[in-house]
Known about the structure:
Bound molecules: flavin mononucleotide
Order of helices and strands: EHEEEHEHEEEEEH
CATH superfamily: Flavodoxin domain
Oligomer: single chain
CATH topology: Rossmann fold
Strand content: 15-25%
Amino acid sequence: xxxxxxxxxxxxxxxxxxxxxxxxxxxxxxxxxxxxxxxxxxxxxxxxxxxxxxxxxxxxxxxxxxxxxxxxxxxxxxxxxxxxxxxxxxxxxxxxxxxxxxxxxxxxxxxxxxxxxxxxxxxxxxxxxxxxxxxxxxxxxxxxxxxxxxxxxxxxxxxxxxxxxxxxxxxxxxx
Length: 175
Ligand SMILES: Cc1cc2nc3c(=O)[nH]c(=O)nc-3n(C[C@H](O)[C@H](O)[C@H](O)COP(=O)(O)O)c2cc1C
């Protein structure tokens, strides 16, 4: 296994392209010279272990289910030892249409990564969202990662992504 020292591995899963578009935005902000993008459909699992800094992106579907590539990958992901890794998460969802499952996938994958040794960075405030319940919440005020909503708040996406990406850049210690 080759080591990608000082680089960021960004692993995303996206059914209709929204999470993928955000992956490219994040890559463009951090710089393609340090970020490698992977569609989770195309990976086995050990690729993640080459990086000390990981960004995991996924949408939520069908009342709180993981996006399909992440759903297929879930078992292999759960077997990875992530100790020593700094992991940031972001997700796409629909806070009005799926108000009791908003961005659940981010919470499911984030909590599993933490259980498997990762240090989670990139917490994000819940202020400005109107969902009822979300597994991505770690308390009433905080999501475990960046939650986006292209269905209802697309005008906020660029600003949220820009602020959050700068935040994780600092938390990774990359600037
Ligand atoms: C049938 C259907 C089910 C959905 N279920 C959820 C859900 O349970 N929770 C949520 O937050 N968003 C849900 N969404 C919203 C999607 O996650 C959202 O449209 C997202 O931007 C899709 O991102 P992607 O194109 O990267 O897959 C659902 C959308 C559809 C069409």
